[in-house]
Write a structure and sequence with these properties.
By secondary structure, the chain is mainly α. It contains 13 helices and two strands; from the N terminus they run αββαααααααααααα.
């Protein structure tokens, strides 16, 4: 028996060794290197690094060009909230027994399956001057002089990019909500209907409490996505006209102006911010359940 247990333990260790080693090599080692670099002034290629302490972190929170990119994240965060609300609405409607529900589920989820780079190119031509959107608006009678530059006007460019992001990820949130709603015991709805509860009351007292953890998860993903947006603004505008995000600014700092130490500090700040928001949301939902 001892030999058999030893063999089982050995097999488990062998199978776990490979993913653990890969996790250490490609996740934890680079992470600790990033933290270490954040305290140095380094261009990424020089054999020597100058220790500067917390100066990189101070620079992030004192220089205007690094603070303004946080403002861009607000557009995506608000868009993510709208996206969650709309996805929840579609999930509630499509879990009901309506005709063509499967078709609409597929249509709404399909954009999530498309590669982000492809979506960027599609909407770059959609929003460009005299592009698809302008052609549709002119066909509806809108004068060309009244049509704004969707990707050229700093006042509306982030609305355009946020709309693309909402369109892409709406289906993902909807599918998660549908799975959570379908896991709720149907007898609860039948009992509520017998007691005279209407649709809103059923949602408020049965559906919403039953999917609260999924809503919490989607909020966490929304915050993470809002401050780590990359593909869409990179492909469509390359950060021009006030559309640069925190990730774009970090990559530009590291690989364009070659300030790897400062870029590493920006990466650490991004991680800490996501962890703080995740902790707050987790505590809020846990406290509400208690």
């Amino acid at each position: 028996m001892n030999n058999q247990k030893l063999k089982k333990t050995a097999v488990a260790v062998i199978f776990l060794a490979v993913p653990i080693i890969l996790l250490l090599l490609f996740t934890y080692v680079p992470f600790f290197d990033m933290v270490r670099y954040s305290f140095f002034k380094w261009n990424g290629t020089s054999p020597t690094m100058k220790f500067i302490g917390l100066k990189n972190y101070i620079q992030i929170f004192t220089r205007i060009e690094y603070l303004t990119v946080f403002k861009t994240s607000i557009y995506y965060f608000v868009g993510s909230i709208v996206q969650i609300v709309v996805a929840l609405y579609f999930a509630v409607v499509l879990t009901a027994k309506i005709r063509g529900a499967s078709f609409f589920k597929g249509v709404i989820f399909f954009p999530y399956l498309i590669n982000g780079v492809a979506i960027g190119f599609i909407f770059m031509y959609f929003f460009r001057q005299a592009g698809t959107l302008d052609t549709i608006l002119m066909a509806l009678g809108v004068p060309q002089s009244k049509i704004p530059l969707w990707l050229g006007n700093p006042r509306i460019i982030n609305y355009s990019l946020t709309g693309v992001s909402v369109w892409r990820y709406l289906g993902q949130n909807m599918v998660m909500f549908i799975g959570a709603i379908q896991s709720i015991n149907g007898d609860l709805y039948e009992a509520a209907a017998i007691d005279g509860a209407n649709r809103w009351q059923q949602f408020k007292y049965i559906t919403f409490p039953g999917i609260k953890l999924i809503i919490s998860l989607n909020l966490i993903l929304a915050v993470k996505g809002a401050i780590s947006v990359f593909e869409i603004p990179k492909i469509m505008t390359d950060g021009a006209n006030g559309s640069s995000t925190f990730v774009l600014k970090t990559l530009d700092t590291a690989f364009t102006i070659h300030k790897v130490g400062l870029a590493s500090a920006m990466g650490v700040v991004l991680l800490i911010f996501i962890m703080i928001v995740t902790f707050i949301q987790k505590r809020f939902f846990e406290g509400d359940e208690k």
